[in-house]
Amino acid sequence: MAICAASLVLAVGVSLWAAMVDARERTIPNAACATVAAAGLVFGLARARTGVLLAFPPLTHCLAAALSELAAGTLLELGYRRLTGRVGMGLGDVKFLSAWGCLIGGWNLVGFALACLAGALFSLVRGERTFALGPWLAGSFCLVGVTLVLTGLVAC
Questions:
Q1: Which residues are CB-neighbours of 143 under 8 A, at least 6 positions away?
Q2: pLDDT in tens, 48-67
Q3: Residues 132 and 26 sit within 8 Å (Cβ to Cβ)
Q4: What distance in Å separates the CA atoms of residue 132 and residue 23, rounded to the nearest whole number?
Q5: What is the sign, positive or negative, of the torsion defined by CA atoms of 113, 42, 92, 19?
Q6: Selection from 39, 14, 18 nearest residue 135 by Cα
Q7: Are 96 and 33 in contact (CB under 8 A)?
Q8: What is the pTM of this model?
Q9: How many alpha carbons fall within 13 Å on the CB side of residue 142?
Q10: H or E element: which one contains 142?
Q11: CA dihedral 94, 17, 34, 77 (to 10 degrees)
């Protein structure tokens, strides 16, 4: 159980750091994506051995979600760039989405939708044409993760 908790805390902490970097520089560090993905793998392996936090998807589902989101997100972003000549959400955002997929599986798509909606509404209110998606992704993924933890604790 301690390994599960440490993995979650590491993922959240690194995500908050990545959110701050993205807000300032409009880039999500690869180290943040790799760390979150590694924390997700450790978390999934520890959960498989201990049988705790059953609200989280199995590790195989998480890996399938992460890889398919990475492939689809990359293809969509590169296609958008080719068609419009502009950057869409950015490949760092795609990698960050995929990294969180290693931890929370397909639930990260719920977080992704929340992040896009909240970020778009916030930038609309402020009259901005673009916004850093990373802070919104980090917040929404952490929210989904906490929800899964609480759901798992209530079910016990």
A1: 111, 114
A2: 888 888 888 999 999 999 99
A3: yes
A4: 6
A5: positive
A6: 18
A7: yes
A8: 0.92
A9: 17
A10: helix 134-155
A11: 10
